[in-house]
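Figure 3 (text version): structure tokens given as input.
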């Protein structure tokens, strides 16, 4: 199988590495003038949560890069692991030269699929979200690679391309977590992350952020508002166990968040990207979209509004 991955960000690189290690033919699409930056590959420091793989892996990934593609290249899948605000531009660039390739869009989502549907027929794309993350430290990709990948058809119906993507990632040791309603899964996942990412921006440092009990409580209260907004948009939160903590006492949620990030190494690596400029830009996009929906639904979100001051 011939796979193209958009960019050399954290998710694109660790998934490219994992797929290439499994014998998949992987190429990365980069902006003009960037190809030579990767001629010597990239250095990885991976916390690997896949079964049967070394937990810690310091290695080099000799990635292949191209600066342009054409239909004759014969890519079967194009993986788009972009920030939410970058996805439309990436698709506009690639769809006209993609031939018959199917797309796996690994981006956050709050606004639904209307924009994507205008660029691609649904039979040519899947949506999903990566189980992993990290940042670049002194030129090294400091990351964690999770044991799952969250994917689904927009219409919720099994298809041949869904089965191919499941096989693709299973071959690389990642269990496909197929969602019946991937759009709603993405919305509730965003609801659980937005407030903490915005609050983190106040300090840009995990320990300082977690030590600010009042700010952490504000993030918890905002998260509960975001989950309620999801419910108002039609998401059945009972179908998503990870959203269950919305019913816990505020103090308990704060304690769980503090423990999770302080003591779980995978959470520390996963959340490290929140300090990046790209993440902050994405949070601005999320915030604008969230408040637009809240205003249209007449739903007051005082705790979420209060966090806006930390969006630089």
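Below: residues designed for each position.
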């Amino acid at each position: 199988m011939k796979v193209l991955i958009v960019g050399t960000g954290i998710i694109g690189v660790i998934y490219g590495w994992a797929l290439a290690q499994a014998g998949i033919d992987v190429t990365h699409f980069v902006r003009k003038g960037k190809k030579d930056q990767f001629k010597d590959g990239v250095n990885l420091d991976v916390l690997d949560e896949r079964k049967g793989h070394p937990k810690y892996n310091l290695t080099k990934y000799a990635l292949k890069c191209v600066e342009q593609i054409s239909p004759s290249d014969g890519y079967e899948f194009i993986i788009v692991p972009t920030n939410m605000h970058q996805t439309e531009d990436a698709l506009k660039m690639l769809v006209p030269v993609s031939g018959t390739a199917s797309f796996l869009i690994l981006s956050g989502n709050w606004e639904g699929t209307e924009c994507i549907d205008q660029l691609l027929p649904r039979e040519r794309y899947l949506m999903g979200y990566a189980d992993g993350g990290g940042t670049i430290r002194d030129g090294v990709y400091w990351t964690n690679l999770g044991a799952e990948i969250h994917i689904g058809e927009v219409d919720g119906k099994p298809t041949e391309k869904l089965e191919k993507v499941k096989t693709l990632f299973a071959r690389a040791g990642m269990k496909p977590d197929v969602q019946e309603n991937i759009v709603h899964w993405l919305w509730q996942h965003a609801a659980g992350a937005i407030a903490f990412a915005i609050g983190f921006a106040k300090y840009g440092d995990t320990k300082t952020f977690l030590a600010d009990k009042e700010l952490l409580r504000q993030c918890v209260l905002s998260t509960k508002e975001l989950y309620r907004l999801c419910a108002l948009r039609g998401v059945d939160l009972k179908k998503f166990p990870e959203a269950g903590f919305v019913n816990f006492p505020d103090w308990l949620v704060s304690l769980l968040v503090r423990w999770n990030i302080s003591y779980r190494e995978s959470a520390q690596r996963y959340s490290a990207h929140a300090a990046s400029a790209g993440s902050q830009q994405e949070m601005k996009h999320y915030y604008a979209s969230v408040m637009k929906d809240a205003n249209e639904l007449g739903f007051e979100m005082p705790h979420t509004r209060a966090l806006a001051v930390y969006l630089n």
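Residues 2-180 form a domain with the Rossmann fold fold (CATH 3.40.50.720).
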